Amino acid sequence: MNRNRKLNRSLYWALPLIGTLLLSACSEKKNNTTTSTLVKTAIVKPWLTNQPITYPGKIKASADVKLAFRVAGPIHRFNVEEGQFVKKGQLIAEIDPRDYKIQLAATKAEYKQIKAEAERVIELHKRNSVSANDYDKAVSGLNRIKAKLDAHQNALKDTRLIAPYDGFIQEKFFDTHETVSAGLPIVSMINTNWYEVEIDIPAADYVRKDEFADFKCETEVFPNVQFPLKMLEIKQKSNLNQLYKVRFKLEKQANYNLAAGMSVNVNINFLPKETALLSIPISAIIHKDEQPQVYIYQAQTGTLQQRAIQINELLKDGSAIIKGALKPGEQVVSAGVHTLKEGQKVELLKPVSSTNVGGLL
Fold this sequence. Notes:
Blueprint: H1 2-32, E1 37-39, E2 41-43, E3 45-47, E4 53-61, E5 64-68, E6 73-78, E7 85-86, E8 91-95, H2 98-126, H3 132-157, E9 160-162, E10 167-172, E11 179-180, E12 185-191, E13 194-202, H4 203-206, E14 212-219, E15 222-234, E16 243-251, E17 263-270, E18 277-281, E19 286-288, E20 291-298, E21 303-314, E22 319-324, E23 331-333, E24 346-348
């Protein structure tokens, strides 16, 4: 009986001691287990300052002109049809030349008579046989009839409408035997020697126009083929959408059948700058003491290092162009940066497998 009491008394004092030792061991084990914060990182990339910008555009005819006769009269004949290709110098249409031939013949006869009379007066004036007044009248009359002759010769020539360049007849406004007035358009013609390409750019790119280096365009009709462009002008005034129109010249391509109306993408390249810039996500930037900074992941130690940077530009795609003590290839923390601190132990967040969306497996 006494022996059992002694054993119970010993257990009474020993149990609290055992419990204390067990709690201490658990606490020590917990303290020895360090947990690392998971972080998402992004690679620091070099920023190419001559990275092109791309805008949609459309090919247009370089010249879509309406052709007209300089003289009036009935159309004697048409030598072209709508959609027909014509070469420079080819006859398009002709006014009935009958009246203009008669007019020219009469003027030639009048010119021949006046010229003969004027030459006699001029010869007599050399011999001092006529007055200066008669001489002046003869010379003036000769000049007038010569101008009249030239005008009537040109009028007869203008009864023929000639193509001013290679191109296509787009539309005919009259037909044979219809009478037209001088200057009234009878056909419209588009130039195919070269084309124009037009795009609209925002003010952010307009102010950088002095940095434009070269221009190229490509179309889905001919994939992976770039056609060089030459800038013709940039409108100095924006439209209602605050966009500035830019016109380019596109030379005719021998091996590619380009046509007005095709959609294209215009690439504008910029002149390179001397300053080396880098690209990082905007989400990687924190501000401490009004100084932008980032956390660099140290792969060897698994810790974070804080570095100051200089922001050069913020882009619409969520990236920041920076200057500072960073190198291409380094890793910056790109999410949750406001809860981190210098020297903190972290682990990289593993990328989600494309076959395990949502991490369900």
